Amino acid sequence: MRLVIVGAGFAGMYAALSAARLRDIEDVSPEELEIALVAPQPMLVIRPRLYEPKPETLTAPLKEVLDAVNVVYVQGSVEAVDTKARAVYVVNAKGKRKPVHYHRLVIATGSRLFRPNIPGLAEHGFSVDNLDDAIALDRHLHKLATMPASKARDTVVIAGAGFTGIEAATEMPSRLRTIFEKNAKPRVIITDRSPAVAPDMGEYPRPIIEDALRSVGVETRLNAGVASLDKAGVTLSTGERIEAATVIWAAGFRANPLTTKIPAARDNFDRLLVDRALRVPSVPGVFATGDAARAACDDVGNYALMSCQHATRMGAFAGNNAAAELLGVPTQCYHQKAYVTCLDLGEAGAIFTRGWDRKVEMVGEGAKKTKQEINRVWIYPPKAERAAALASADPERVTDL
Length: 401
Fold this sequence. Notes:
The protein is α/β, with parallel strands linked by helices. The chain is built from nine helices and 25 strands. It folds into two domains: 2-112 and 253-336, 3-Layer(bba) Sandwich (FAD/NAD(P)-binding domain), CATH 3.50.50.60; 116-249, FAD/NAD(P)-binding domain. The protein has helices at residues 10-25, 63-68, 121-124, 131-144, 163-179, 206-215, 308-327, 364-378, 386-391; strands at residues 2-6, 34-39, 43-45, 59-61, 72-75, 77-82, 87-91, 97-101, 104-107, 111-113, 125-126, 155-159, 187-192, 218-222, 226-230, 233-236, 241-243, 246-249, 253-255, 272-273, 286-288, 293-294, 340-344, 350-354, 359-363.
């Protein structure tokens, strides 16, 4: 039997570890149940940190931990899925295409930034969506430091005042001061079509976030979207023209396009609709997890968000349940009633909230320490030791905050 997991992000990593854990519990050998993880590289990109400096350092190797739990790594990208033949088609770095057959499949391909057809965005926009984009932005910022100071050079516009945009914006003033000469006066502007920053955060955290933006010197342009970009700057939907050599797009995400290869229902974000075991109900043998799945977290109408907090726990349940079906043992109902938000606010610290109504529990330096522990310790892969790696993937304990 073979269980194939597509994707090496937080959901894919924990799906693989959790499936291996159940295999170990049931005393089934790797020869009887092969667990294979398919990804372009055997590494976890620490995506929640890509707004930080030195993004090239924000990866963690996975090969050793996969080897420790007898998970087979398959190098390549899945370009097609045949759910009738139960096969995925993998293209490796040399362009060679081969089928990999499965008895159960877990789609854990994550999400990517949604880039609308705005004039100039593809040519002149930057992002912190993936490792390559974050590295390109970092190199661009350092290149700016070799140029004479000017209004455009010293101005950064961030499009999107959600989580990613706010973290990128509040980090940017200190980041630019480190890169530029000492007397530089960087200008950072965040823009959003919504009438308020952090539109999804609600009434409790928003005043704190607004104060943080002001304290670190970030300007806001609300009820204003990006109409066009060019090499010298950006024009907003309000008609305002801002001279800026750097425009960072952080407005909206969609599930990886591989979800569209599965003949099943999806939501407006292209996430596959799944049941409480994280199965795709209309396609036998297929599970979806993380940012690729729209999953209910509880019985009162809350659904998992596109975040590593949800992806890690969802991944553990999906891997466990896919293996459980093959091993003939009961599956477990995914649930994630505990929900927290920890938002980095640059030199203003951070904000930590708990619950779906986001009641504020910590702000400032205390919250910042928690954020740093989450980003630098908790979300990294476990040690490449068999017992520790398997124990880390217990579905009932992953991200139990």
